[in-house]
Here is the input.
Amino acid sequence: MELLSIVVPCFNEEDSVEIFYSEVKKVLTDCDFEVIFVNDGSSDDTLSKIKGLACEFSNVKYISFSRNFGKESALYAGLKASVGDLVCVMDVDLQDPPSMLPEMISEIGEYDIVATRRVTRKGEPVIKSFFARMFYKLFNRVSKIDLVDGARDYRVMTRQVVDAILELEEYNRFSKGLFQWVGFNTKWLEYENIERVAGETSWSFWSLFSYSIEGIVAFTAVPLSISTFFGMIFSIIAFLLLIFIAIRTLFFSNPVAGWTSLVCVILLLGGIQLFSIGILGKYLEKTYTEIKNRPIYIIKETNIDET
Ligand code: UDP
Ligand code: MG
Here is the structure.
């Protein structure tokens, strides 16, 4: 029988961990599975709740980080520790309904990946949904890979897919993009948004905003061309203006005028230059963090035998 590894990143989820395990167990009655909880530096009782489960059930594994490294790092650690022929990635807050698991598993074979997407964004602030939609549009236009709107990380993958993802060892991990980048046949299952069972989302508006910038920087270099584009446009305008002013001064002479327009032009160009340097800086920052080659996570304790 095939083994299913379920990778579950947890950050301050003391109320969800036990409910999660019992829900999954209920659904996977005739399936050989292990759950790998990755405690991402929680400051509450998450780790002791996980350890409690691990004492009770032999198929509960855990990895505990030395601090909060973020969900992306937790996913990587979990995937790396997984040994299953099939691997599932799931949130612990039950926003990813375990009831879909049997269907997802049954579709594997015909497909290499069975992924899920939310078709509604019920219970989410309107403004957040709006920006999310804008992000997907923009991202798909400027990058070579296509993200699916509403796609969750919740998915079942074959060993082959997981091994491909693990080969992408970059430090700045935008999982949504990485999952898409490796390719393979994907089947999308749809479901309605479900609100989390306990606790609160750790994503604020700004953290989502900077996450989307991360995604764009990680998967396209198009923003770098923006300065070239503006540079060309303004060079042409400046050249035409130069001819115009030269002719006007020579033939019609001209007392001091145009102070306002001059200031506007200086401010506009200054703005565009700073903006371009900012974009350049963002890419430089990413290159800098990559080149330092620091580990993606640090494990403090685990019950998984490394050998
Ligand atoms: N998570 C994590 N590290 C973090 C933030 C979140 O491991 O720094 C986990 C969290 O415990 C949950 C999953 O990632 O299992 C998704 O987080 P959340 O529910 O806050 O995100 P949302 O569902 O709102 O996108
Ligand atoms: Mg959630």
About this structure: The CA atoms of residues 247 and 253 lie 9 Å apart.
